[in-house]
Amino acid sequence: MIPQLVTVSRRRPDGRRQRLYVPVLPVLLLLSPLLLLAAAGGVVACRIFKVSATGALRGAGRLLWALPGTRFEIEEGRTALLISVR
Length: 86
What we know:
alpha+beta; about 30% strand
């Protein structure tokens, strides 16, 4: 299952939290022209480095499929950043 919601939570140095909810599907639809260009660039890169394009696409699909449930936590001093993929 592809991710549906990405939550970005940031704790400011003053202790307050700021949350941002990003729905994946609308963002994906808005950025689809850029994704087509990125896919074309990926195919060109696969040709240059002599890598199987289908294998690279399969690997990217597996990575996308494994994202739901992933949490990235970064803490630097009094500022913290949490990214949660659902």
